Amino acid sequence: MENYFNIPTALLQLVSSEQAYHYRIIPVDDTNGILRFKSDQVSEALKQELEIVLNKEVTLIKESTEFIQKYLSVNFRQRHKNQSEHLHYSTDFLEKLLFTAKDIGSSDIHFEPYEHKCRIRFRLDGKLKQQFIITPQEYPVIVNKVKIKAGLDISEKRLPQDGRISIKTASDEFDIRVSSLPTLHGEKLVLRILSKDANTINLKDLGFTASELKTYKETVKKPNGIILISGPTGSGKTTTLYATLKLLNDDLTNILTIEDPIEYTLEGINQVQLKENIGLDFASTLRTFLRQDPDIIMVGEIRDAKTANMAIRAALTGHLVLSTIHTNSAWATISRLVDMGIPSFLIASTLNVSVAQRLVRKLCNECKEAIKVSKAVFPSNFEIPNELKTHYKAVGCDKCYHTGYQGRKAIYEIIPITKKLINHIRQNDLEIDAYIEAHKIDTLKSNAIKLIIEGVTSVDEVYALLSD
């Protein structure tokens, strides 16, 4: 039934979200220059006004208020009310697109060319949703506008390029990272929207439990050592790092960061943008950082053995180093460092804490539906805990745009490196399941189960974490 309310993208872009809500109209068809709309307030006055606004002949079809509301909620996202409206109504399609994406909470914009059409998709709450379809003839014009704004070479269409767009208005300021990629039918662009202000980020708001927050704060307040946060792309690692830097930032501390890209700005922190094409990479910048009298160093990502060795060296010489690494769990970070060629005794003597995290969509409280636990919805090797009698599923309503979810939160797995674990690492004994169980350390899996029991998220959302 839900698919019944989905409107094709080609029709969706006939009117803006504001027009759809203001006039309560749903596009049905556009043939022979006549626009057909469903509406719950059919009148000759509305028909005439729409014909003036849209500059086309209009036909209105009566529909119930309930159905119109559902069509609007499923297909059109409303912009935040406190934004500057004149920016959205600009005649510049690209400017309108960028501000619309920012205002509705999109993290990425994808421009994708194909043989007969090109599409634009927004990433909302971690999922991609198609927003516009444009013709292959119009597509190069839009791509060139993006490339000019990002300072890219519009004549170079054979090689990938990276750039940045800075947007500043009276009410908002943000950056956009631009990446171009040559594909079969043209250049694919991905625009990552970066919120510039980190002052609103707080550790207590990210998703830590009370005990996890206490443990994490104790480890990050040590004067030296390494703090590593792991997880896949888009799991919120950088946000956690910046919330940590905000906690540690004061007038007595020299904090240096090397990032690619700089996603947030924070007053009092010295930030360096990675530029590998001129030799400014993580390892070489870290070497220079050590001559800048730092107290705390943040490295955007440990990608290779060279960077890992420099981070270890910085920690050994009395600095606190924060970084991210791509692994599936907190303990797998140690294996990853060993695979990079870092000696076990160096890992043991420098690592303060290993953290793994994921972002999980939260169920909409207005429409989530409780159902009895059934073995069929869980992975085959999952043992259902005794306290899990019912769980909730996503349904969808006006408030959550009929997705069933509203907002996201992070879940964590935090392993402080104790004396016992130092011995495990030194001896290359990386089997610590018994230790985690004995010390009641919450894992990603156990935290995911808690969220299911509490009705915060659904089984589908954390399914991958439930499997052993």
Rounded to the nearest angstrom, the distance between the terminal CA atoms is 35 Å
Described by the principal axes of the CA atoms, the overall outline is globular
| Main pleated sheet | 7 strands, mixed
Quick check: average pLDDT?
Answer: 87
Number of strands: 18
Task: Tell me the helix content.
Answer: 25-40%
- Which residues form runs of ≥5 with pLDDT under 50? 81-91
Fraction of residues in β-strands:
25-35%
Number of helices: 17
Helix and strand composition category: alpha/beta
The radius of gyration is: 25 Å
Major sheet: arrangement of strands = 12-11-13-14-10-15-18
Outline the secondary-structure elements.
Elements: H1 9-12, H2 17-23, E1 25-31, E2 34-39, H3 44-54, E3 57-62, H4 65-75, H5 85-88, H6 93-103, E4 106-113, E5 118-124, E6 127-134, H7 139-149, E7 161-168, E8 173-183, E9 186-195, H8 210-220, E10 225-230, H9 237-248, E11 255-259, E12 270-273, H10 282-289, E13 296-299, H11 305-316, E14 320-325, H12 332-339, H13 344-350, E15 351-363, E16 369-372, E17 390-393, E18 405-416, H14 419-426, H15 433-438, H16 444-453, H17 459-466
Parallel strand pairs: 2-3, 10-14, 10-15, 11-12, 11-13, 13-14
Antiparallel strand pairs: 1-2, 4-5, 4-9, 5-6, 7-8, 8-9, 15-18, 16-17
Task: Tell me what you see in this structure.
With 468 residues, this protein is α/β, with parallel strands linked by helices. Helices cover 32% and strands 28% of the residues. The chain has 17 helices and 18 strands. It has helices spanning 9-12, 17-23, 44-54, 65-75, 85-88, 93-103, 139-149, 210-220, 237-248, 282-289, 305-316, 332-339, 344-350, 419-426, 433-438, 444-453, 459-466, and strands at residues 25-31, 34-39, 57-62, 106-113, 118-124, 127-134, 161-168, 173-183, 186-195, 225-230, 255-259, 270-273, 296-299, 320-325, 351-363, 369-372, 390-393, 405-416. The chain has a seven-stranded mixed sheet with strand order 12-11-13-14-10-15-18, sandwiched between helices. The chain has a six-stranded antiparallel sheet with strand order 6-5-4-9-8-7. It has a three-stranded mixed sheet with strand order 1-2-3. Helix 10 packs parallel to helix 11 and helix 16 runs antiparallel to helix 17. It is globular, with a radius of gyration of 25 Å. Mean pLDDT is 87; it is low at 81-91.
